[in-house]
Amino acid sequence: MNEKEKDSDTRIYALDGLRGLAALAVVAYHYTGGALRQLLPGAQFVTLFFILSGLVLSIVPLRVGIDTYNWSRYQLRRIARLAIPTCTAIGICCIVSTIAMHMGWKAEEYANAFSTSSPSAWLHNLLTQLDMLSMTTAGTRVDGSTLAMADLPSWSMCWELLFSLALPVYVIIATDMRFVAPIALACVLLSEWTQWPPLRHMAMFALGVALAKRLTDNGRETMRDVVAVPLALCGIVLVCQSGFGLLPGIVAQPLAVCGCLILVVVALTCNVVSDLLSTPPVRWLGRISFSLYLTHLPVRDWIVPYIPVAFIGRLCMIPIAPTRDRNSRVHRTDRRQTVRRSWRRWYSCIRFFTNSIRFSVSYMPSNLLPQKQS
């Protein structure tokens, strides 16, 4: 059996679906405001990403064996997997920022760093944006200084990269949930008390590793539906409560971490919730979650302002309309044909989106156009 077949046999698709929904929640957090933004605290879903990364990345080395696993090959592939897309996204943002500033367009705050005409200063600002290893959280560096980031979600890639390099240590020391969970919660409390996020970030990966160890020892367990559904709802409530500020941070943050852990456990076991997370549309969100997470803010800053509202309304209506036959009855076909029709609808939606961007240049507001010198 080759590596691809092994991966298809051991892959838990519900975890992909959970990651996709978390990425969608982060997008909604950055694209909305008011109560909905409070209901979807973006930082907690990044915590969920960290737990999932610790779980997924440590399953294979724990099953194969720590001594026999090809660590050098894994780390090279993981570094390329994280660094190349992240650096590409940041580089494109910097180039677009440079063009916008020289054309006189209205731009975000971070674009001001690329208004310089000095090549050395421009390269310095680019390398500063690419310095992922100095970021502790969104826009904040290890030394406490702040940085207007060209692609804000890239800050979490720092911790993904550090964990990937430290994975051999994690799979040795962070394998017993009875010890890992209290230590992780203590790290969250200490992090909130001292306002030092690295303690929290690295502890979240340990929770995922401990879950992976339990999975490799006991296999995928079954959870009764009457338990899984209320437990998933409880996890959602615990995660979302942190956005409203009803509790002090030193209480709300550990509760949110518990909620993230509950959601991962529910997705990891066999139940009706994990079945829903394994459906094709949700799994598709999981497949594009990394790209969605990494590019949604540049799209918001550089593409969405140029799209007319009428195009957005038509775009949102496309996937809602049902397909009807000549007798005005909804087609009733087998499951495969239904899935194919759903994918065609989404494909048509995406094509319409790209075409609307192409023609939206004519609707560009005048204050975004370059101003002529008098």
Notes on the structure:
This protein has about 375 residues and is mainly alpha-helical. The protein has 16 helices and 2 strands. It has helices spanning about 5-10, 15-30, 35-40, 40-65, 70-105, 120-130, 155-175, 175-195, 200-220, 225-240, 250-270, 270-275, 280-285, 290-300, 310-315, 335-360, and strands spanning about 135, 140. The protein has a two-stranded antiparallel ribbon. Helix 2 crosses helix 13. The radius of gyration is 23 Å and the shape is globular. About 30% of the residues are buried. Mean pLDDT is about 80; it is low at about 1-10, about 310-335, about 360-365 and about 365-374.
Question: What's the total helix number?
Answer: 16
For the residues shown, what is the average pLDDT?
Answer: 79
The radius of gyration computed from the alpha-carbon positions, rounded to a whole number of angstroms, is: 23 Å
Distance between the first and last residues' Cα? 71 Å
What's the total count of β strands?
A: 2
> What percentage of residues falls in helices of 4 or more residues?
55-70%
Question: What letter string, H or E per element, gives the SSE order?
Answer: HHHHHHEEHHHHHHHHHH
Which stretches are low in confidence, meaning pLDDT under 50 for 5 or more residues running?
A: 1-9, 309-335, 359-365, 367-374
How does the overall form come out from the CA principal axes? globular
| Strand residue content | under 5%
Strand order of the largest sheet: 1-2
Structural class by SSE content? mainly alpha
- Main beta-sheet annotation: 2 strands, antiparallel
